[in-house]
Write a structure and sequence with these properties.
Strand content: 35-45%
Distance between the termini: 30 Å
Number of strands: 6
Number of helices: 4
């Protein structure tokens, strides 16, 4: 079992490493196993380092054609604020340490976060439009298909 620490800080999280058993099989040359503890400490280290905070800037939003006009069709207050369509910037951030749990054939990631949406004004300044708090629970089932590691993703809620 491995532990992942935040860079420069070896005071780890308060997770307890639970023992786990690797099935006794001998039909393959290599077996690889990860414990839930490994994923929990990784999640803690990445959260502490700010790796779950993402800013989606104007270039990416314009690729997906996201603007204040699109949000204005959903949220009337945005339409009232922004008569002229402006590009938007999205700031996504985890508000709590993501929880990763392992099941027999998949693993589940529970993440709570927020998304702040900004209008990018002509002078390159930004104006906050709104913030959304969210919680997501996702299952990921890894499979090996044609000698490639693949995965299927399911948004549970």
């Amino acid at each position: 079992q491995g532990t992942v620490y935040p860079s420069g800080n070896h005071t780890g999280p308060s997770y307890v490493a639970a023992p786990f058993v690797i099935p006794d099989q001998s039909d393959s040359m290599l077996y690889l196993a990860f414990s839930e503890y490994f994923f929990q400490t990784s999640s803690f280290a990445y959260y502490t380092a700010g790796a779950f905070n993402i800013t989606i800037a104007e270039e990416t939003c314009s690729y997906f054609n996201i603007s204040t006009e699109i949000f204005g069709s959903i949220i009337p207050e945005v339409r009232e604020y922004s008569v002229t369509p402006y590009p938007v910037m999205l700031k996504l951030m985890a508000t709590e340490i993501p929880i990763i749990s392992l099941q027999q054939d998949s693993f589940t990631v529970e993440i709570q976060g927020s998304m702040e949406v900004f209008a990018v004004l002509p002078d390159s300044s930004t104006q906050s439009l709104f913030t959304i708090n969210m919680a997501a629970n996702t299952s990921i089932a890894p499979n090996i298909f044609d000698q490639k590691l693949m995965g299927s993703l399911c948004l549970n809620r």
